């Protein structure tokens, strides 16, 4: 081996060691490895950093914006709440949870889905009297399974797919003559991972839903509710034409809300106390809730409910910048010992008081009649500029924002779903043929290549912003720049592994260890190696680093005559998108790790069987759909 090979192997070894130590961020480690490779001149700097402008990186950024639009309009949450229902037991609950989550994860990034579902599932578990640890891991695994079914299910699929397109562009003549391979169509790119991912999702959901009865632990979640928190009394009005009009309290999802209780309903001047779950809601009903601030923030997102005080609508701010803030009244505040209506609070601060908490007790009565005292905590509906404007004001001791308390644009949920459907359509339809037919029939000059996946992603991301499903500011914030940096840098490291011969050297080691197991056995072993590496360096980095090894294995197999790289690419894609064995192997696993109260080894109970199942399906199904040899 040349010194370039040894040097690259050493850099990759340092990279793995740095990531396993957990002392260095993934993006920092990847960028460090790329820098060392550029310093040694293994590949030209322009090629080393070209990964940051790779179509896969840009497409992933656009898909983050699409997911933001779906989140801000509440489209996925609305679907989730309708499908969850009230199951009779843990197995039924896991089926009801995993099937819709896996379905949605196939068509949007799985990370925001888990982020949106976490509070929903936590509340759902309380209603069902189930330990959240019986549901949180299935939530993460279902999102992973769905993400392994289509190109856009997770950013890993997009990165590997683009690497293969680049590989085909460079080796197309050889692949065509030796294995009869053509450039993959848009539909093939979108669905080819489903050959393994689809059956794996079906088997995985059944295994986790049923096997979870014995394999999922019962852990006490960190937020067990033992600490008493501030409780507010909040009055909400059922809007005219609301979708919850004519539905019972339970059907509207207002019964047994965690940390929030519907205590009374005021209707036509009459007060209904001890409200039962069968009580039918009517337009203009005044609902009186008592609850903690996080639950109040969730209450404000329910479609068809609005705060009873008309001051909220008079706050001068764009709906996209409206938020909730808690402010503690100081002794020197001009608000002290005055009724709220006398303080002209909204005019003075451009904010509306929704509720007041005082000295460990909730303050009852109409907001306008409350006489404010020093130390009162006010829950305010205001604009995003309130926090920096009054953080150091002597009117308040403390001002803090309520995380995630933005207004949900329910009226645009349908539009967001239409844009999502358009994305899937544009990425799967044979647009080149359609455009060619239109050009011939109408005399137009549409692009002969049709709409490419990257263009489709940018079109739909732009539509999400233009239609105000999300703002430009939220769209920028939604992009996970760390993910983009990791993939961009890993592409450069992968190119260095290929150019230096390091990938071929690793492939030689694998062949020497398991060369006699045959092509399908080689796929099985390659899948397991990829799965192990995913636990060490994250699935995105592992996928990009393993790609040159996958193509090297394909080229050296069959006695050096080579095999089609497609089964190896599909195996890599399916395995890297299906990381179950540890909480650090996939970001969604880490998201449920704390809330579920899990231990590190809890993931092995379900993760090891699922990993072996994926490897077996790769060995059986990938070469069946994409033969090793022509006519094979």
Helices and strands, with pairings:
Blueprint: H1 3-21, H2 26-40, H3 45-48, H4 55-72, H5 75-84, H6 90-105, H7 110-128, H8 136-147, H9 155-179, H10 186-191, H11 194-215, E1 231-238, E2 260-267, E3 270-273, E4 286-292, H12 293-299, E5 305-307, H13 311-314, E6 322-329, H14 345-349, E7 351-358, E8 361-362, E9 377-383, H15 386-390, E10 396-401, H16 413-428, H17 431-442, H18 453-466, H19 472-478, H20 481-500, H21 502-514, H22 518-537, H23 539-556, H24 566-576, H25 587-593, H26 602-625
Antiparallel strand pairs: 1-4, 1-5, 2-3, 2-4, 6-9, 6-10, 7-8, 7-9
- Specify the number of helices: 26
Proportion of β residues? Answer: 5-15%
Across the major sheet, the strand order is 3-2-4-1-5
The rounded distance between the terminal residues' Cα atoms is: 35 Å
Shape: elongated
Count of structural domains: 2
Largest sheet: 5 strands, antiparallel
Calculate Rg over CA atoms: 28 Å
Average pLDDT level:
84
